[in-house]
Queue: 3 jobs
Job 1
Amino acid sequence: MSQVMATPIHIPVLLNETVEALAVQPGGRYIDCTLGGGGHADAILGHSSPGGQLLGIDADPEAVKVARVTLEAYSGSTLLVNENFVNLQAICIKYDFFPVHGILFDLGLSSLQLNSDSRGFSFQHDAPLDMRLSPSQRTTAADIINTSSESELAYLIKTYGEEGHSHQVAHSIVQERPIKTTLQLARTIEQAIGSRRGRIHPATRTFQALRIAVNHELEHLKAALKQAIDLLGFRGRLVVISYHSLEDRIVKQVMQQESRDCICPSSTPICVCGHRACLRLITRRVITPSPEEIEFNPRSRSAKLRVAERITTWDEQYKTVEKLCFLTEVKANGWRRPVLLKKLQGLFQHA
Ligand SMILES: C[S@@+](CC[C@H](N)C(=O)[O-])C[C@H]1O[C@@H](n2cnc3c(N)ncnc32)[C@H](O)[C@@H]1O
C-alpha cells in the first residue's frame, strides 16, 4: 500500500445535506475550495455525472495528493490545484473555470491534518509547533509563540481563541519560552489555567487561536466569500460549513449583507448606499449534524452549514464584468468586456 493510501481517512461532514444544498445536477460545474480528503468532491462528482466538472482547491499539498487518489475515477472531469482559496478568483480565471453552479467551503482542518504527528495542529501528538497549511508559508506557530510580546499573545489568544484566561496563558508562555513543541505548549497552558475544564482541554482555545493566526484564516475567508459570489452563475449555490463561532459569524454576516437591498444604518431615513441584493438565503437557520452523525463522527459536532443562492440582474452582471476586467489574470488571458459578459451569460441561459 502506498503512503498516501495508508493515511487515516477524513469522514466528510453533513455529506447528504451538502449535496442537497448545492443542488448538484448532472452536467453542472462546481468548485470545492477545501478539498481535504476529497470526500465531498467525490459525492459532488457522483451526483453531477454524466458531464459534471469539478475544480478542487487545497492549500495543503498533502491534501491534494490524497484527493487525487480518492477522485481517480473522475480524473477526466476534475482539475485539482494546490492553492490558497484567498486567490479563488485568480485561480478560476487562470483555468477558465467560471461561472459555476455551486461553490463549497468546508472550513478548518481535515482528520489527515489533525491526526498527523508532524504538523503540530493537535496537542494529542508531540510535534514541532508548525501549524502551516502549506510549507510555502513563512511564519510558523513557534515563530508567533516565541517572538510576540506578552500583550500581543494575550490579544491573539483572546481574539482568535475566545479564551477568557488569555492574560494568564500569555504570561506563562512568555515565562516558559522558548517553546518548541505542541506538548510543551499544552503543558504550559495547563499550568497556567488548570487541567481539563468541562469537555474541552484547556489548550483547545489557544491552539485554535494560533492556527487561525498562522494561516490568516478569518481574513482569507472574508476575501474568498466575496470572490465566490462573483463566480456563481444565476441561481448558483454558495455552501459553507464552519466549525467555530468566529468563522460562522463571518459567513452569516456576508450572506445576510449580500441578501439585502439596502445596507444603510437603520438611522438613515432614506437609502443612500445603493446596495442591491445578489444572494437569496436558502435557509435562515443553520443546518447542523444529526445526533446519529455526531455519534458516528464526533468531529462533526460543531459543524454549521449555511447556504445561499446567487440572484443577479443584468446590472449586477455588468458590475461583475467591470470588477473582473481589471484583474491581471483576465488581461493575461486576453479577455475583454464582451468575452467576460458572454461567459457570465452562458450560465444565465443554462439555469
Ligand atoms: C475540513 S477539511 C475538508 C474536508 C473535505 N471536505 C473532505 O470531504 O474530505 C478542510 C480543508 O481545507 C483546507 N483549507 C483550509 N483553509 C484553506 C485555504 N485558505 N485555502 C485552501 N485550502 C484551505 C485544509 O487544508 C483542509 O484540507
Job 2
Amino acid sequence: MTQANNDITADSQVARIFEWRRGFNTIHLIDLGIKLGLTKALAEAPNSSAQDLAGKLGLHAPYVETWCRTAYGMEILDADELGRWRLAPYFDLILASPTHPRYLGGYVRLGTEVAADDFNRLVEAFRAGTTKPFQGRGEGFAQAIAESTWGLQVVTAKKLLPELPELAARLQAGGALLEIGCGTGNLLMQLAKSFPAARCVGVDIDLESLRIAREKIQSAGIEGRVEARHGTIAAATQPSTFDAVVMVEVLHEIAPQIRPQVIQEAAAAMKSGGWMLIVDETYPSTLEDMRRPEFKFPLMTGFEELFWGNVLPTREEQEKLLRDAGLTGAVQRTVIGEGFTVLATRKP
Ligand SMILES: C[S@@+](CC[C@H](N)C(=O)[O-])C[C@H]1O[C@@H](n2cnc3c(N)ncnc32)[C@H](O)[C@@H]1O
C-alpha cells in the first residue's frame, strides 16, 4: 500500500528498509530449511524439538534451534507449550510438497541461487550493458526455472485450458496442441495427461531443456503422441495444424525484435477456431500502474531478469502482437496469483 507523502517520516522509511532486509534473510532461512530437509521433516512429524530434527537430519542441534526460533519469529513455524515446533498453517503445502500447485520452494531457490548470483554481477553489467541469456545457462538453471513455474503449469493444464469453450472436446476428439517454449517439458507432460487423446508438440530453442523434456517423454513411453522439437515454430510445425497454442512464462523471454514473427508463426500454425492461451507477466505501462499491487510482481521480474536480456511486454504490446498476427477476435484478459496475466483469444 502506498503511503501518502505527508504520512512519511524518516522512521517509517527506515522501518521499510529493515522490513525488506528481514525479507531477504527470511527467503534464505526458508531456502536453508528446504535444502536441509527441515521443512519436510516438520511436515512429516509436527511437534518436533530442534534436538529431534537435528538427530533425524544429522545436523548441529544449536544451529537448528536458532533456525527454528527465527522461523517461529517470522511466523513460518508455530510452537506447542513444550517448545516443540510445527509448520504454520499451509506451509506444509507451500514449502514441503514439491508436487503441490502451491509449492514455492522452486521460486525461493530461483531467488537464492539464480537471482542472488545475477544481482552480484549487476554493477559491472550496468556499466557494460552485458547480458547472460536464458539459453545456455545449463541444467541446474533449467531445472530451477521448471520448478519455479510448476504451480502455473498445473493451473494451465487442469483449469485454464480445459475451461476454454469447445477446446476440450476438440482435443478429446484427437486434436493437436502446441506448446511454445516447452523448456524441460513439465507442462507438456501435464498437457499430455490432461488431454490423453491429443497430439502434443513442444517447441523450444534451448537444447539443454529439450534434452530433459525428451527424457521425460521417453520414460513415460508416450513418444508416439508427444514430441519436443527444436527450432522456430515455422520450421518445426505445419500450418493450420493445432487446436491450441499455449505459452507459459515464455512471451517475455522471447527477444522483442522477433516477438511479432513468433506470434505470427504461432497463429499460422493454428486451425481456424483454435485457441491461443498466453500466461505471462505484463509490464506496467504508466507510473500509476508501477505502484499497483498486481504489477509489483512483473515489475520485479523486469528487474530480476534484466541481466537475462528479458524485456517484459506491456498490455499495449501484447494486444498489438495478437492483432498484427491476425488474431483479431476478442481477447480475454485476467490476472491470477501474484500478478500473472492470462490472455486467451480464438483464431477467426
Ligand atoms: C521461463 S521458461 C518456461 C518454460 C516452461 N514453459 C515452463 O513453464 O517451465 C521460457 C522458455 O521459453 C523458451 N524460449 C525463449 N525464446 C523462445 C523462442 N523464440 N522460441 C521457442 N522457445 C523460446 C526458453 O528457451 C525457455 O525454455
Job 3
Amino acid sequence: MSGQLVLHEYAESGNCYKVRLTAALLGIPLERREYDILKGETRTPEFLREVNANGRIPVLQDGDRFIPESNAACYYIADASRLVPSDRFDHADMLRWMFWEQYNHEPNIATLRFWMTLVGVDSLSEAQRLQLTPKREAGNAALKLMDDHLAGRDWFVGEDISLADVCLFAYTHVAGDADFRLNAYPHVVEWIERVGKQPDFIPLDA
Ligand SMILES: N[C@@H](CCC(=O)N[C@@H](CS)C(=O)NCC(=O)O)C(=O)O
C-alpha cells in the first residue's frame, strides 16, 4: 500500500463496514468519504468517471487507484496479515466463504435489510415485493448453512479469525434489522459474540 487509504462509502452499508472493520482490526487508518446512495450520489457522472464505473460503494482508494467491491477492498488491506491464512488450502477456503457471502448471503440478507430499513416496505416496487419471500427463504438457508458449519468450531476457516469471518459478520450481525430470527441459529449467535470480543473491534455505527 502506497499511502493514506480513502474509503468512499455510505456508513450504514454492511459492505462498507466490513472494510472499516478489517482496517480497524489491523490498526490501519482510513480516511472516510460519505455518499448518500438514497440520493444517487454514486450515480453522478463524476463518480462514475473518477471512482467506480459500476456506480456503487464501497470503493477503496490508494493514491490515484481505486478498488471497488467490498471483499476485494478487504483483501487489499489484509493481504499478508494475520487475517489471511498462509496455508494454501485455508487461504482458498477463506476466499470460498467470501465468494459465497457475495452470492448466497449478501444478495438476500443485505438486500432485505436495505429494503426494510432504508427504502421502506411501502415504497417497494411490485417486482421487489415478489422477491421478499424468496429472499427470506434464501437468507434463512444461508444462516442455517453458517450455523451448521460453526457447530463445534470457533471460526469459518482454520483455528483463528480470518477475512471470511469479517466479511460474513458485516451483514449477519444486523440480520435482525430485516426480521431474521438470529436466535434460531445459536452457533451463529456465539460466533457474533466472539467476533465482537476481538481486540480493536469497532461496531457498525462507530
Ligand atoms: N458487490 C458489491 C456490492 C456493492 C453495493 O451493492 N453497494 C450498494 C450499497 S451496499 C450501493 O452502492 N448502492 C447504491 C447504488 O446502487 O446506487 C460490494 O461488495 O461492494
